[in-house]
Structures are given as structure tokens and as C-alpha cells.
Amino acid sequence: MSIDVETLVGWFDVNARDLPWRHADRTPWGVLVSEIMLQQTPVARVLPVWQAWLDRWPKPSALASETPGEVVRAWGKLGYPRRALRLHAAATAIACEHGDEVPCDVDTLLGLPGIGAYTARAVAAFAFGRRVPVVDTNVRRVVARAVHGAGDAGPPSTKRDLDDASALLPDGPDEARAARFSAALMELGALVCTARTPRCADCPIAATCAWQKAGRPAYTGPAKPVQRYGGTDRHVRGLLLDVLRGTTGPVEKARLDLAWPKAGQRDACLASLLADGLVEQTADGRFALPGEH
DNA sequence: TATACGTGGTA
DNA sequence: TTACCAAGTAT
After folding, report:
1. DSSP string of A58-100, one letter each residue
2. If both were cysteines, with which of A75, A197, A203, A249 could A84 make a disulfide (CB 3.0 to 4.6 Å apart)?
């Protein structure tokens, strides 16, 4: 079972969300920033931060000229702040080694920090209109249902997932058409073929959907690991970093000690933040965001 | 391949 | 309230 290109792209023409990184005046840099911010973070939370970043740093070299700490601060509460560090490093590499222009080919993009299999292809497709398969969680779910008739995607398998998506892409000389199809596939997963409560009544490809034909069987694969947050190291790291985001200069350790009562876990998390380069220690023993002392 | 990595909205 | 979920990457 395949997915009809005309039908899906036609649906996308009418139903695509009006997102700024899709506007005609978008830049590859803007697309790259959006893709990094959207990794595991919902669109609604990315929107205002993306806008502020593009106003403030319209080119990679502009971001590269900031301290990493200032970039981490501007990342705010988007989550996974190592992304901010890596985006700063990617901007530096683009400014210094690629003439301040975002690379357009997948292999070069893959060489940049924070850019993996999904983001490299997303940038190639959405910023440059290249015909490359783009596989994210939405695409995996839509393919699992519409093509394979399963209730949901199983564990990721890079090669198989890529081959599945590649087989769906329209052929022909119009590469931008293939890129638009990929965007439509993702949008369908985000708006209609959702994880929890799919809106099959509104689905443009329900008539050919293998999952529909099979009677919408429940997902039978392995259970997905549940992520806890309260009390975890991720939680504590977030609390510590939040203290530093809220101040301009270095702070005393006593200040950080207020953020979490368990000393052992707190110190281990501070050490891991140091190791990640998200925090630095000053000569006098205080702590600050990187480059801010 | 499995696990660590933030944060907040929704059911 | 707990649990799931959100355009992944690095190790």
C-alpha cells in the first residue's frame, strides 16, 4: 500500500499550519534553527523563541559571536539545553567553515553538532527543496498505519524507516514536490494521524489506509519506555540551570544548594552540567553559564 | 540497541 | 494525579 501524492499534498495545500519557518521569505538558517528547537519540543512553545532568535541573530555568524552562556539563556525553558550549546557550535562551524551559509547537502549537515539523521534531511528538504526522505516520529506513525496497517510505529530502525519513507516519495525532476510531500506527511501526523486519538474522520487518505482496512487494530509492539521527570537528574539539572539563567554573573555554590535538597544528587548533577559545558566554574570557585565571567 | 537528556500541556 | 506525548541526538 502506498500513499497518493496528489491527495496528500492537496490536503496540505489547504490545511498546513501557517508557521513562520515555512513562509516564502524563510532562510535556510531560520529553517535550521526551527528544526533544532522542534526536537522533542511542541510547536507552540518554539514559536515565540524562534521569532526572537531570528530577530536577534539573523545569520549564523551573529549567533556565533555570542557567548555560549548567553545562547543558553536565550534558549529559555525550551528544554534539553545541550541543543542550545550544539546550535551555537553549529553556527560557529557554519560561519567559519561554510562562508556563513547553511550547507545544503545531507552529508555536510550531518557533520554539524546537534544535527542527526532527521534534522539533516529536514533542512535539505525544507530549506533547499531536495528530494531526500525525512523520517520523524510523525512520519513513522503515519507509515506504520497507512502503509503497514499497524496501530503505531514500533521501535525505530534507521535503515528500514528511511527505506519506507524513500519508497513513498514522488519520482521525477521536481525535487521540491518530493520535499513538499514529506512536509505533508509530517503535518498529517501532527494534525490528524496523531498518537493518542487519531482523527480518522478528517483524514484525506483514510480510503486507502491499511490500518483502516484492517479494522484499526491496537498497537501490539513492545511498550514504549515511560519517562519520569520529578526528582530525576534531568529535573535537578533543570533547576540548577534555571538559577544561572536568572542571573547575569557567577553565583556562589550556596545559591545553587538552595535549588535541591539532596546534596549528593545535586552535586552529581552540577558535575554533569560542568562536564557537558553547560556550566563553568570561575577561578574563585563560583559558577556561571559558559563564557560569562 | 538502549539510555540519558528538559519542560509543560492534555486526558 | 499519573501517564503520555511533543519535528531527536549522542553515546
Report:
1. -SHHHHHTS-HHHHHHHHTTSS-THHHHHHHHHHHHHHHHSTT
2. A75
